[in-house]
Amino acid sequence: MIKLDHLSLPVRDWQASRDWYLRVLGLTIEFEIPDRRTVAMRDEFDFTIFLTSDGTAPVAPGCVLTFQVDDVAATHAALVRHGVAFVHPPQKMFWGYGAELRDPDGYRIWLYDERSMREQGGGG
Fold first, then answer.
1. Residues 29 and 84 placed together within one structural domain of the fold
2. Domain, as residue range, for 44
3. What is the gyration radius of the CA atoms in the chain, in angstroms?
């Protein structure tokens, strides 16, 4: 068996990123190591993202983090009501159907749900 367990993501300000992932995506804090400027953020399925601004790696927002949500349209609407800016609302894209936003460091975040992906299809 092989299972992806965690991902390390270099960020400029680990506390600002922590707060964003808490507020916007609802991840929880697994643990923090302030003297190493690192926080472990976990989703409800026990996948962990380490946000670190320890200077060991440059911030290079070339990767995309894709999150499955219950309802992408409802999630998008709720986040917009709370002042979250999106690159685009739920729509058909080359990767499927969903919405895109950016975290404080410019990492692309894609949100989708299984029903919309199935019904709206992919290929923008």
1. no
2. 1-59
3. 15
Quick one: which of 47, 66, 53 has its CA closest to 10? Answer: 53
SS (H, E, C) 21-81: HHHCCCCEEEEEEHHHCEEEEECCCCCEEEEECCCCCCCCCCCEEEEECCCHHHHHHHHHH
For residue 36, the domain's CATH number is 3.10.180.10
- Residue range 75-115, pLDDT digits in tens: 999 999 999 999 999 999 998 999 999 999 999 999 999 99
- Which residue, among 26, 25, 37, 28, has the nearest Cα to 110 in the 3D structure? 25
pTM for the model: 0.88
Q: How many CA atoms lie within 13 A of 89 on its CB side?
A: 8
